[in-house]
Amino acid sequence: MPEPLPSTALLSTELRRTLANAALFQLGWFACVFSTSYPALIGVAVLALLCHFIFIGSWAREGKLVVSVLLAGSALDSFLLQLGVFDFGEERRLLPVWLALMWALLATTLNHCLAWSAKPWWRASLLGAVGGPAAYYAGSQIAGVSLPLGQTFTLGLLAIIWAIALPLLHGFAQLYEQQFRLRQTRR
After folding, report:
1. Residue 3 domain-assigned?
2. Domain count, the chain
3. What is the C-alpha to C-alpha distance for residues 113 and 108, in angstroms, rounded to an integer?
4. What is the mean pLDDT of the chain?
5. How far is residue 82 CA from its own chain's centroid?
6. Who's near 128: CB < 8 A, 6+ residues apart?
7. Does 2 fall in a domain?
8. What is the secondary structure of 77-106 as a DSSP string?
9. Domain that residue 22 falls in
């Protein structure tokens, strides 16, 4: 016998959370890229992250994912910076805080507004290949980040990286969700 469909109220609540998650991510993304001109906007991005944990997700459920994505993404972008893929207009060894914060914001979307792209894996790969370079390009235009290796080469490289990275990030999200559920059943 098939499971009954969830109530309309439940769908409505889940849809509101998904839309709120997407809106908070976009707010945080724009705050990050515009913070290069208006540094106080970093606070708006941090507030968007906090609102996610208060109203949509929870630190207990997603904190490990957010920290993992923040660290892995920051390491990846710092590596690309050292390879000369990005130029922030000053000598740097590590990426700027605003770019690292974007990775934390991205992590909040994996179990929510981007959950649809997790399975099958090729959805995440396709979204990563298109959306990753598009976000970097738009961000570079707004934040004044140059792409010294050339726009076409850089966006192609980012497409390959993101076609691999987004499915991997979804894998971490699924693993951590399973671990969280297992801990809940043991209580």
Report:
1. no
2. 1
3. 9
4. 95
5. 22
6. 159, 162, 163, 164, 165, 166, 167
7. no
8. HHHHHHTTS-B-SS--SS--HHHHHHHHHH
9. 8-186
121-130's contacts with Cβ under 8 Å and 24+ in sequence apart are: 121/167, 121/170, 124/166, 124/167, 124/169, 124/170, 125/163, 125/164, 125/166, 125/167, 126/163, 127/166, 128/159, 128/162, 128/163, 128/164, 128/165, 128/166, 128/167, 129/159, 129/160, 129/162, 129/163, 130/159
Q: 112: closest CA among 54, 173, 163?
A: 173
- Sequence-distant (6+) residues with CB within 8 A of 82 are 93
114-164 pLDDT, tens digit each: 999 999 999 999 999 999 999 999 999 999 999 999 999 999 999 999 999
User: What is the residue type of 109?
Assistant: T
The token pair at 26 is: 């976009």
